Amino acid sequence: MMRQNLRREFPDASEEEIEAKLTEWLHTRPGAENGDCPGKPRTLSDPAA
Length: 49
Known about the structure:
mainly alpha; 2 helices; 0% strand
């Protein structure tokens, strides 16, 4: 859905530019800076994961 919003907002942007904007949004959106789940963020290499 956000990809479609970005396409409407930036109609002249290339697919690569839209993907870059989507990735940026996914990493900086309010309330989900550390992911969508509550709790302590972990990396996949974390043995306690």
